[in-house]
Write a structure and sequence with these properties.
A six-stranded parallel beta sheet has the order 1-11-8-7-5-6. The protein has a three-stranded parallel beta sheet with strand order 3-2-4, with helices on one face. The chain has ten helices and eleven strands. It folds into two domains: about 90 residues, Leucine Dehydrogenase, chain A, domain 1 (Rossmann fold, 3-Layer(aba) Sandwich); about 140 residues, Rossmann fold. It starts with a strand and ends in a 5-residue tail after the last helix. With about 290 residues, the chain is α/β, with parallel strands linked by helices. A hairpin with a 7-residue loop joins β9 and β10. The protein binds NADP nicotinamide-adenine-dinucleotide phosphate.
Length: about 290
């Protein structure tokens, strides 16, 4: 078994971005790409994600800003903030960290973002362009998975791919990307969800298995074909007395038993999560270059 090492690949990509930022922006006296994040409320996981994104921006030389608002902000006020960020020429791309408080219609907020600044790739315009194979911002997590598969030169063409989970942010877009007509694509994809019968049998026929269910340790060795490529998207904070933070991160796959059976696997942590952040940086660079219109 080999690790699909998200930490290693994320570091490589960050080094490449940092070089481009230095040569194409800083050395030429041009403002570097600027990523903004909107953070509503004090959800600990969201706060952690946003600070990880700020740190990644600093590492590559991007500008970053965080717009923080209390959980009781009104939907109208948040829409005004989106309008402001859409119009601000100093900001190349921005994200609105989800989940948002229940009184705010998340879809309405996403749809207000200018698709040219939607570096999370959640706007329907970007999703539609992704489906059509047009230039767009890909959603960060599926994009990170595809980058990882590409950098390890994992052949997808003609392979039997199974995706567990059909969320808008992960499962559905990764199923489209794996099946699209492209060098790293041309897979035959089965998309499973809570209405799928016999999920274990479907999973165990996969050459490439992507798991994005949000069910800790759901995938066991018995559900995985020998020498399959396994991508674990799940992230779960498990309380632990042994770590300084008081928790350990685990995935949707039982790593200890599955890793002995597959050819490649993403660890948790150190796999898809880090690739998600790096994809956001790549999208921001693309936004700064006005490569998506
Ligand atoms: P989500 O929106 O909760 O969707 C979960 C999907 O799994 C749904 O499609 C659901 O089916 C399906 N599902 C749940 N239980 C199932 C079962 N027992 N059998 C079959 N299907 C089942 O999840 P998400 O946003 O994609 O997130 C999934 C996991 O990835 C979470 O742990 C999340 O924290 C993590 N995540 C990680 C990253 C990263 O950067 N690494 C990014 C995003 C998410 P239905 O559609 O039928 O309900």
């Amino acid at each position: 078994m080999k690790l699909l090492d998200g930490k290693l690949i994320a570091e490589q990509i960050k080094t490449e971005i940092a070089l481009e930022v230095k040569e194409q922006y800083i050395d030429k006296g041009i403002n570097p790409p600027h990523l903004a994040a909107v953070l509503v409320g004090e959800d600990p996981a969201s706060m952690t994600y946003v600070s990880a994104k700020e740190k990644a921006c600093r590492e590559v030389g991007f500008l970053s800003s965080v717009y923080r608002y209390p959980a009781n902000i009104t939907e109208d006020k948040l829409l005004e903030i989106i309008d402001f960020l859409n119009a601000d020429h100093e900001i190349d791309g921005f994200i609105v960290q989800v989940p948002l408080p229940k009184h705010i219609d998340e879809q309405k907020i996403i749809e207000r973002i200018d698709p040219r600044k939607d570096v999370d790739g959640f706007h329907p315009v970007n999703i539609g362009k992704m489906v059509l194979g047009l230039p767009c911002f890909l959603p960060a997590t599926p994009m990170g998975i595809m980058t990882l598969l590409e950098r390890y030169d994992i052949e997808i063409d003609g392979k039997n791919c199974v995706v567990l989970g059909r969320s808008h942010n992960v499962g559905t877009p990764i199923s489209i990307l794996l099946s699209r007509k492209a060098k790293y694509g041309n897979g035959t994809v089965t998309l499973c969800h809570s209405h799928t019968s016999n999920i274990a049998a479907i999973a165990s026929a996969a050459d490439i298995l992507v798991v994005a269910m949000g069910k800790e340790g759901f995938v066991t060795a018995g559900m995985v074909k020998k020498n399959a490529v396994v991508v674990d998207v799940g992230i779960h904070r498990i309380p632990s007395a042994e770590t300084k933070s008081g928790f350990r991160l685990k995935g949707d796959v039982k790593f200890d038993e599955v890793s002995g059976k597959c050819s490649y696997i993403t660890p948790v942590p150190g796999g898809v999560g880090l690739m998600t952040i790096v994809s956001l940086l790549q999208n921001t660079l693309k936004a700064a270059k006005k490569a998506v219109n």
